[in-house]
Amino acid sequence: MALQFHNTLSGRVEEFQPLEDLKVRMYTCGPTVYDFAHIGNFRTFVFQDILRRHLKYRGYQVNQVMNLTDVDDRTIANSQAAGVPLRDYTAKFIEAFQADRDLLGLDPPERLVRATDHIEPMVRLIETLVQKGFAYESDGSYYFRVKNFSDYGKLSKIDFSGIKDGARVDTDKYDKADARDFVLWKAAKEGEPCWETALGSGRPGWHIECSVMAMTYLGETIDIHSGGSDLVFPHHENEIAQSEAATGKPFARFWLHAEHLIVNGGKMSKSLGNFYTLRDLIALGYPPTAIRYLLASVPYRKPLNFSLEGLQQARQAIERLRNFHYRLTTQKFPAGQNSDLQAKARAGAEAFGQALDDNLNTAEALGAIFNLVRDGNTAMDAGEFRDGDRAAFLDALERWDMIFAVLDDRDYDKLKKYGLVKEEPSVVRLEADLREAGGGNGAGRVTLGEQEIERLVSERNHARQNRNFARADQIRDELLDAGVILEDTRNETRWKRK
Ligand code: AMP
Ligand code: ZN
User: What is the distance in A from the centroid of ligand 1 to the CA of 75?
Assistant: First the structure.
């Protein structure tokens, strides 16, 4: 199947081809750095990361520009409330965003650019719009004349034919009911940061920022533009109007929008006060990889209902994957090959790739990999897995992880790097030596199923957390008797059969 995405502009799923060879020019609306990003924001950023990783997996070269909105109504309001100059105020949240991005395994875009570093080209674009009759001045501010751009509404599919010419809206965010000529440049206001420019003293509106940063680095027509679904109107509709009115060319060919992360049926947002930041969840003890997994697990065009229970399940799913990987790399198997299993491994790799080709169906891609885990574990437990089968399974798993990026356990090191580990884990005891320890040779042992082993391992971890070492050791011995070897790393436990 060819690679295809749902394009908001056409309202259909379309085959994707970049404009030029294998080069994908992609612009993503980044965070407004007025506070810590919440995990709803990160749902969209994780989707964009899966998108870029899958494009690369399919052999494309990705040139992604992400902006940082460091001047808009919200950043100004918050910096004023904090009594800190805008640039210093936003710098703190840019740093936090970079840390969060790294914690969640989001690859850095080729360029991460600040709006306030692009004031001059914004002024030039507004001047072009004035020259072409698409913008006008009023009381020192500049507005886009919606009436003159006949395609207005083509992205959001809203009918704006009755819009009143000359009526204006000055805020960055507004509803369709308030749609009118929108602001490109805001005249300086007492106490607000401003720039002295050819347009006079003032600051840019939010929408012009993205048009300019996209076209500056990626050219007049880009391949993919994306963001959360709340950006369709007015932000992206206005970006199209500004850019296409100025250049006369299509601005973005594919528009991809992620549905919202919701809590109890409502959108997670700062204004509703129902949000978690990444750091909130880390403080509750959830590892960043589990959060990444949960955010990636629901296909991006479906709303994602967030719960701590879902996060716990994500954590268990990752455990299962890592444990399978551990068995694949360390358990002993008889020599030889099992052609049936090899075919399954290859089919699994094929299946997850195709699921992602199909408008990034992550749920199906996860299903494909867990089928593989189940088949592999079953074959291992039945003594049918052969030494020569390792490579095919490892290949499938590692390919899958080029996109999902949860297999490596780097959580602890990263948390430490950013000073987010409160204390060392209570038990730092590497039990690799147990492997050689002899005890429990497995003769006459009971065979425990995978689920039972997982249950005992988690009971033992629980006991160790409560410093009930007697019970923990008892479980370890019990497992050893059943031919299951444990290995404790800093904050996790792996198991395999002897
Ligand atoms: P902002 O920092 O508000 O500019 O938003 C950054 C990104 O997060 C944008 O692409 C938004 O569309 C997206 N976003 C905001 N809230 C949510 C949510 N609850 N679920 C998913 N994406 C969201
Ligand atoms: Zn934007």
Answer: 15
